[in-house]
């Protein structure tokens, strides 16, 4: 069990912003909305594929916090959280608005043709910033870019004219209201897309050098009004002017004079998972492959009296331990060898396989030609990868050797334990660690930003290869995440998550979790897990799971059932009076190209029935960025603000940041709101993420590290 996974919720975002960034095209800058563009108006430019951008912009009393991800070369998405003072007439505090954008670029810019993009702004929110646009951008010379576009919604509140799409149908001539006071928001406003008046916008950019970009734009957005139609600030001119400065790669600071009355400032930070700050990494050099002499390759057996099997096993155990690989069992024949081992160091099982094979070329008798490796995690043999030793000897230094080694790999399900000789473990059964943690809660309407930090002590004891006892204790040192009162149910929905701020609020040490987990293999493609204990900070109980996942299949199917009881607010050993049985049937699919899809259908913590749909983009270096949404039988008005659960999740491998091999990673989920509907119990060690590490799709994606 990787204790290092128990890092704070905010660690992923902190690491992303702290990671050394790689220089990018100087012309791709970000707007105050956090999207590629001018100042307020979009352009048709796209960031580099995979780029992640965090933007904070402020002007006219409005604070915008944006997260943008370039999902593919042409498609990007943005999540935005904005504070707007004086927007509503019923509250003195700022109105906090959540919104989502999508943007698609149709083509690459040509010698004569501009790039063209279409975008939906605030298509999934309350509609405060709702608007659509079609925009074109063309480079002129080495330093100028010109942009012109046609906008609807917010992009047509200045200089609007009759919608040209009205020629297609009369329904495009009128635009329904996208923001209604008291509306919960969170539902796509498709009925308003590209409807109502249209207006033109545009601008120019001039880059005198790679660090500076000067901008001027004509804005078609004059929608800065409160609910009563009164202006939030004076809009004296549609012309905006600004300058963007890049003091460091991945950092953009922008100053602008907007609407003839407002001084604005924004800061943008970018990181691209495709660009490692340490190149290929700072991994120690692997042991070179030892090539057998031609005279001994044909040997049909080896002298066991001169080189006993016990001596080989002991030498292998010691040699593999240097590489962070724990040898579990070995089966040796005259011409074959089969090894089961646990990779404790390398994020990619493909890299661990390459390191193990190099060592085996030096330690195995010369007669052994066929080598089968069976990687194991949490006691589960993941697969059986069979190699010809002569291939390893011949391909190490060959051009195209990496691809050729994958083509010649024979991968199937792990074999039975029969014939394997166990090897005494070379590592301690008991492991522990002490580390700081950071907890962040975002977007709560009553307290939009809550932060806490402290110290966490975690430990695990491996009772057997498949049986693991683990737990963690936390002590909060400081934070502003104190709750004043217990939340009441909304629309009859039980409070299963909204009281999370009350947990551990007493100031003393808390039991974060304490579980006993057993992992089993029920058949060649069937895996199981059973976990009992304090499963997470809010729930304890029993969790059982089975997973069907063939080694070479893109599809996996799982079933999980949990019976849980809500824990006491002190996070020690007592329970509250709420208990529920939940369960999900899950389908996992590897679409290729790094895209992983998941659907979880079943019963959630509040007793609601529905399904979660998720899509993640995974990169070869271990980064993962994705989005999800959950729809259940709870009506939108009973769910509360946001209408349904949705969010963004990020995982960052620490070897990307440190440059050193490690299996550690940190992750977080950015939810639009923490509500009760669509909530699942959080159980560590779910099967799919463990099992697929040794299956073909994951090995293929990371095979570039086989010879590392």
Automatic annotation (TrEMBL):
In terms of InterPro entries, this protein maps to: YbjH (IPR010344)
Organism's domain of life?
Answer: Bacteria
Query: Which named protein is this?
Result: YjbH domain-containing protein
